[in-house]
Structure formats: structure tokens, C-alpha cells
Write a structure and sequence with these properties.
Helices cover 28% and strands 20% of the residues. It has 635 residues and is α+β, with helices and mostly antiparallel strands. The protein folds into 2 domains: 43-325 and 606-634, D-Maltodextrin-Binding Protein, domain 2 (3-Layer(aba) Sandwich); 369-601, Dipeptide-binding Protein, domain 3 (Roll), CATH 3.10.105.10. It is globular and about 80 Å long. The two termini are 27 Å apart. Residues 34-60 are annotated as: Disordered. This is Solute-binding protein family 5 domain-containing protein. One of its GO terms (molecular function) is peptide transmembrane transporter activity. Residues 115-546 form the Solute-binding protein family domain.
């Protein structure tokens, strides 16, 4: 499984220490896809629709008739980076956090554009798209018995913003701990409030209207957009950002008992422990070995009538989930022997996996591959030869895309045109009329010669022999990634064949990310492989990252017109306009050749035939393709 993203966006902001003035009435601080086709014989399914102002959500409700007391063994390649919702930024961490903690909303089954309530019973959106008001469920409590309410949610969101860890930008686009004028929340304030019996002074802070997160009542909370770095604009994918761990409910009493909130710092206890409102609770995490989850016996969803369940809040069926972290060969061996019922494995093992009796191996729709990785070649604009459009265009013709897919991915991948990833909303409309970049080494050599450089045809003929020899260029890739290693070896050979002396330049993952995530240009590695994977399931996530991030791994790309189109796409609620803007962005980037779009690998779902109940969604981190283990059962 992969990091949640290839190039990360981190907003670094300073905290202003403020002092609460006692006995205030109005606070003034010193600074401002299709649904599953099968259902278990022991389960009956009904449907209900919840409608609120500006919001309609369809939820499936499931009535459990009988269950099997059972244990599920899952095996993957990488362990969690953290169990703290404010910190984790990799798929294995989100996988565990999604089972133990809960947020206000979740994707609606297999949908990537609609949502169901989790801790929120329903919600409304203001006509200008700037305020989202959530009406919270009553009777929700953490596994230790502490109650959930609007005050707890207020704390949880501001905690993520103030801790300011790698995924903070997901919320920080639209929310901030300060209004920039007369209101600022800091760690001391968060640590001083009683969230289960707030004083009038506490309430005056949480109910202050001119802030990002406002408590309206004990079970009503409003999010006011416009205070984050996106500026005073609505954000059409705001609900998608709330499906990520950053806004999940965290017990303030537990945090306070284990060090409290500290600005710009992690909490060591929270990184290795978990107390949430979810259907599972953490039994153990043995670093480097396993995570074990068990049914939460005090789960609040147990008290709901089945008619009020949806897939995101129903009680768990399987008693114990144990996730082991092993090599690919060990995982496949355990699947064969029956030790494991679900495993994660690369596409290159597809044929082997398909030959195992009693095992279901499904190639998921390409949107699941896109949510994991879209690969491309980046080029540094400060490297003089790359400033020539003819050179960049020549490189696009020098690469055998279909050969890469066949050789590197065993044919299990697709070529694509970015930045909207294939399978995501608007992809086909964004790429209408465009053809994938094509392999034509003759054309590549001719363009390189036109650019003033010596070039070589496939038959060995040298074009423009009196031209400049192309300077040597380091081609960066992640040596810890088999996909990148194999791809880089092939591409550098293809570039060398036309007269570009590209040198394979491997770095381990840590060094690799240090280069591609660095702001600005990379003079040492002006060319290489990069990728992006979703932070939240929305096309704008990819477009924003690749258009607005001034990083080496995104070619330090900036175009004022494309940037303005991106801003408009982020704020519009008009699907037709959003599609047109994505098409404009796609065509502009296509013709500029700063990104050489390569391929998207397919993603495999692998489990024994007696596993059912999985509801695939690309937002899911469980095995990389579904949200909740609580829906899974044995047939």
C-alpha cells in the first residue's frame, strides 16, 4: 500500500499566543460505483433518504438477523505511520483510524460524490456555499463512555489545525484557527476548556460566530469557510475533505490525560493508542508485526434500531480483525495455506493469485488505481534545455507507453491524460478530443534536432550533427519502488536512444521524497518519475496539487491562466462549468508538456471466496479499496 500522496502540501503557519479575557459575553481575543450485487442471506436491506436544506443523502440501512463470531486475518506490506487522526498520512494508518474513529460524514456506499451521515444525523449548506451546519447524533459516546457532542467536534478540528502536521492542509484550505482579525484559538485554550460541562466563558469562545468552527448548540455545529488559505470562497468538495481523519472526533479528556495539545507537535501517546467512537477498538499494535482490532462492546450504534443503520455506522459483524505486515511472498503463501483471508499484492502477482483455489482476485475499476497512484515524468523548468517546448515535446514521443504498461505492469494498467485522473468525475469530458501521448522515436529525434540538439534516429542516423550535444541529466526515481525502478530503467534507455543522456539516479524513499516535495526546482535531479495519489476523493484534489504546488515533483509548474481556472473549478457548484474548466486546464497542460503523463496501474482486490460484504470505494483505506471492516462477514 502507498503513501496517501506523492507530493504533499503543508501549510506552515505560526501560532499567536492569546489570552482569554474573563467574564466576556462576546469573545474578543488578542488576534484574529455500483453498489454490491450480493447481500448475505442473514441480512435484509432497506433504503432511506435523509433530506436537509441544500443536501439530500441516500443511505442503505441493514438489519442483522444472525452473525458469525469470527476472526479475520488480513496481510499487507506496510504498517501505520501513526494512529493519531491529526497525524497519519499514509494508507495503513488511515485504514486503522477509519475503524476506530468516526467523522461527521462518509462516502455514500460506492459513490464518490454523495455522502451519508456518521456522527452527523444530517446537515445543511447555505445558499452561498460558505457555511455547512451539522446536526449531530445524540447518544454517541467514545469506547470509554465519554460523550460526543458539538464541543468535542469543535476541539477535534481545531486540534488538527493547531498541531499542523503533514495532512493539515486538507482542512487548512478552508479553515484556520484564527480569523486574522480579532480571534485566535491556540493550544492553551484547547487544553483549558471543559468539553463535557462547559462554563459560560468556555461557551463564549466556542460559540463566537466569526471563526471557522462555531458551536451553535450542544448538538449543532457550523463550519464557516473562507478563513483558510483558499481565501474567502466556497469549496465544492468540502464534504469530501471531512471524510478524512483530520476532522474525526477525538476524546479531549484522553488527549488532556496524555500530554494535551501542543502547537506544531505530535502527541506520542496518541500516535500509538486509539480511543474512538467507532465500531472497533484497538486491542494492540505490535510495531513491525501487527495491529489487532476487536468489536467495541460499548459501541453507540448497538443502541440504534437497525432501521436507522447505514453501512458507515452499523455494528461490526466480525469479532476480531488482525492485520499482519509481511513481505509479498509471505502474504501469498499465507493466502494459499488459509492463514490469511485478505491480502494486498502487486499487479505483477495477478497470474499467481488467480491460480490459487478458493481465492477471489478482482481487477477493480481504474478509479481505484487512480486513487493510489498516477505516474508521470516531471521536468525542472530551471534546466535550460527543458525551457524549449520542442525538447519537452520530443521527450513525450520518446517513451513507449504501451510497452511500459506491458513490461512493468504485466498489462494491468492504462495510459492517461492528466491532471484529472482516469475514473474520477469529469475525466472523459476533460480529455475529450485529446489523444494519449504516442511513442514515435523518429518524431522524437526530429523534434530534438529542430530544437538545436544532435539527435539519433532508430536506424542510427544522426540528425543535426553540428548541433549541440544534449547535456547529461540525472533521472530521479524511488529505488524502494519496484514499479519506479523498472520504469526509470526503460525510460532512460529510450531517452538515450534519441540523444538525451539521461542517467538513472536512484534514491531511497526518504531521499526521494526530500527532493520531489521540496519547494521550487531541483538542479541535481531536473528530471524524474513522480506520482500523485488522493488525499480526498475529488478531481480538484489532483488538479490543485499538480497546478498550484511549487514543488520539484510537480515540475514547479505555474501558469497564471491555468491557476485561475483551477480556483474557479474549486469554488463553483455548477457541474457544467466545472467540467469546462477542467477541460481548459487539461488541454493547456497537454500542449505544454511539462508533465509527461505515463500510466495508472490497476488495483487488485484479493480475498478468499467466503468473504463478503465489502463495499468498494476509492476513498477507502481498508485494504486500499473499502471504508469499513464492520460491513465484512463470512459466508
Amino acid at each position: 500500500m502507498t503513501q496517501k500522496n506523492g507530493v504533499s502540501r503543508v501549510l506552515v503557519v505560526g501560532l499567536v499566543i492569546v489570552v482569554l479575557v474573563a467574564a466576556i459575553v462576546s469573545v474578543s481575543l488578542l488576534t484574529r460505483h455500483p453498489t454490491p450485487t450480493t447481500t448475505p442471506s442473514s441480512v435484509s436491506t432497506t433504503s432511506s433518504t435523509t433530506t436537509t436544506t441544500s443536501t439530500t443523502t441516500t443511505t442503505s440501512t441493514t438489519s442483522l438477523i444472525s452473525v458469525s463470531n469470527s476472526s479475520l486475518v488480513v496481510e499487507e506490506g506496510s504498517q501505520p505511520d501513526s494512529l493519531d487522526p491529526a497525524v497519519t498520512f499514509e494508507t495503513p494508518g488511515w485504514e486503522v483510524v477509519d475503524q476506530v474513529y468516526q467523522g461527521l460524514v462518509a462516502p455514500n456506499g460506492t459513490s464518490v460524490t454523495t455522502y451519508v451521515g456518521v456522527l452527523a444525523a444530517n446537515w445543511s449548506v447555505s445558499s452561498d456555499g460558505m457555511t455547512y451546519t451539522f446536526y449531530l447524533r445524540k447518544g454517541v459516546h467514545f469506547s470509554n463512555g465519554d460523550p460526543f457532542n458539538a464541543y468535542v467536534e469543535w476541539f477535534s478540528v481545531y486540534r488538527s489545525l493547531i498541531m499542523n502536521q503533514a495532512p493539515e492542509f486538507i482542512l487548512g484550505q478552508n479553515l484556520a484557527y484564527t480569523n486574522g482579525v480579532n480571534f485566535t484559538i491556540n493550544a492553551s485554550i484547547l487544553n483549558s476548556i471543559n468539553y463535557f460541562d462547559p462554563s459560560p466563558q468556555n461557551l463564549s469562545v466556542m460559540e463566537y460566530p466569526y471563526q471557522s468552527v462555531q458551536v451553535i448548540g450542544p448538538y449543532t455545529i457550523a463550519f464557516h469557510l473562507g478563513y483558510g488559505y483558499n481565501g474567502d470562497y466556497p469549496f465544492s468538495s468540502f464534504l469530501a475533505t471531512l471524510t478524512t481523519p483530520l476532522s474525526f472526533a477525538v476524546d479531549p479528556r484522553v488527549v488532556e490525560e496524555h500530554g494535551g495539545v501542543v502547537a506544531n507537535q505530535t502527541n506520542a501517546w496518541m500516535e500509538t493508542h486509539a480511543v474512538g467512537t467507532g465500531a472497533y477498538e484497538l486491542k494492540s499494535w505490535i510495531p513491525g508485526e501487527s495491529v489487532t482490532l476487536v468489536k467495541n462492546p460499548n459501541y453507540w450504534g448497538n443502541n440504534l434500531p437497525p432501521s436507522q443503520w447505514n453501512y458507515a455506522i452499523r455494528p461490526a459483524i466480525i469479532n476480531t480483525i488482525t492485520i499482519y505486515y509481511k513481505s509479498a511472498s509471505a502474504r501469498i503463501a499465507d493466502l494459499k495455506s488459509g492463514v490469511a483471508q485478505m491480502i494486498e499484492a502487486p499487479d505483477t502477482d495477478y497470474s499467481v493469485l488467480k491460480s490459487i483455489p478458493g481465492v477471489n482476485v478482482t481487477i477493480l475499476p481504474i478509479i481505484f488505481g487512480s486513487s493510489q497512484n498516477i505516474f508521470y515524468v516531471y521536468m525542472d523548468p530551471s534546466f535550460t534545455p527543458f525551457q524549449n517546448l520542442l525538447v519537452r515535446k520530443a521527450i513525450s514521443y520518446a517513451i513507449d507507453y504501451q510497452g511500459l504498461i506491458k513490461t512493468v505492469l504485466d498489462g494491468l494498467g492504462v495510459q492517461y491524460i492528466g491532471p484529472v485522473p482516469p475514473g474520477f468525475p469529469y475525466y472523459h469530458r476533460a480529455t475529450a478530443g485529446l489523444q494519449n501521448y504516442t511513442y514515435n522515436p523518429v518524431k522524437a529525434a526530429e523534434l530534438l534536432a529542430q530544437a538545436g540538439y544532435q539527435a539519433t534516429l532508430p536506424n542510427g542516423t544522426v540528425l543535426n550533427p553540428k548541433g549541440m550535444p544534449f547535456p547529461a541529466v540525472n533521472f530521479l526515481y524511488d529505488s524502494d519502488s519496484a514499479t519506479q525502478t523498472y520504469t526509470a530503467q526503460i525510460i532512460t534507455q529510450e531517452l538515450q536512444a534519441i540523444g538525451i543522456p539521461a542517467k538513472p539516479s536512484p534514491l531511497t524513499s526518504q531521499g526521494y521524497y526530500g527532493v520531489i516535495d521540496a519547494t521550487g526546482n531541483s538542479t541535481e535531479y531536473p528530471m524524474g518519475l513522480s506520482y500523485y495519489s488522493e488525499d480526498y476523493t475529488a478531481s480538484i484534489d489532483y488538479v490543485t496539487a499538480l497546478v498550484e504546488d511549487d514543488m520539484a515533483g510537480t515540475s514547479a509548474y505555474y501558469n497564471a491562466t491555468v491557476y485561475n481556472w483551477t480556483v474557479q473549478a474549486a469554488i463553483t457548484s455548477n457541474p457544467q462549468l466545472e467540467a469546462e474548466l477542467f477541460a481548459n486546464i487539461t488541454r493547456a497542460m497537454y500542449n505544454q508538456y511539462w508533465f509527461i503523463w505515463l500510466f495508472v496501474p490497476y488495483f487488485l482486490a484479493i480475498h478468499t471466496d467466503n468473504i463478503a460484504g465489502i463495499i468498494p470505494n476509492p476513498a477507502g483505506s481498508a485494504m486500499g479499496y473499502f471504508m469499513f471492516y464492520s460491513d465484512v462477514y463470512f459466508t
